[in-house]
Fold this protein.
Amino acid sequence: AKADGRGTYRFFETGMDARAQARRVLERDLRLALQRDEFEVYYQPIRDLEDDRIVAFEALARWNHSLRGLIAPNNFIPVAEETGLIVPLGEIVLRKACADAAGWPDDVAVAVNLSPVQFKNPNLVTSVKAALQASALSSDRLELEITESVLLQNSEATLAVLHELRGFGVRISLDDFGTGYSSLSYLRSFPFDKIKIDRSFVTDLATRDESMAIVRAVTGLGKSLGIVTTAEGVETDAQFDLLRQEGCTQAQGYLFSPPRPAADVAKMLRPAPER
Ligand code: C2E
Ligand code: CA
Ligand code: CA
Ligand code: CA
């Protein structure tokens, strides 16, 4: 198989399962990309809904492929997870994110996504500490986003790691809230700092009563538990207004900005135009 330079991969071998083959090629390319430092981190602002201030940026991985251009994470994170390459990749994102954030104003945090696979790595805590030390970023400016699936696997060990991370000041967010099977019980098992309301509930917030009711319940839950709530995927003024009205704490979405390269962060931090 060979990358043909037009954004697709062609396969010459016969008798091989095309999907398995595509995966092998992707795995090989991911290894090369790690060696060649082709991964970049983009940043999407997260705004406080009360004062409109940018309180954090979420770090989102991008693969700057030599032939195919910029590749979004959904196209490579799953294979990186299957092959274990998410461990070195996740470490690169973490290190770049901490280093970039160290250059931002002191009251702006950075949120980094952690894959369940990274929790199987016994060095996770050490590498988080190392990234903070190398960048001299204060630990309270680092947020780590995990999904419920992290708690699904080996939850005793995972909880111990989460407590250790939180013990030295890192904040832990529960990502994609509401999309799993037993979200509520996880809120009892660990003192999360933040709940991120999944985009699927925000998308039809203004048009479906059910989504509105769910967002209202989650923001209420956040308030009674003292947990920050962040709405993902805010695209319209109507969604923004409803979220603010419901007392959701923060929002993130294309309405404010898509994820942009590190060099654009300063531009994004300039005061927003009056809305
Ligand atoms: P996520 O953690 O839920 O990140 C939010 C995703 O929603 C991002 O997609 C972001 O670009 C997109 N998004 C933000 N606002 C809007 C909006 O208003 N409308 C719509 N339609 N989309 C919006 P992205 O960057 O493609 O990342 C996709 C997923 O890949 C992330 O979902 C996360 O699960 C994963 N991912 C990205 N970077 C990393 C990483 O460094 N490590 C790990 N483990 N996973 C990552
Ligand atoms: Ca996330
Ligand atoms: Ca999310
Ligand atoms: Ca999501």
The longest strand covers residues 54-65. The mean pLDDT is 92.
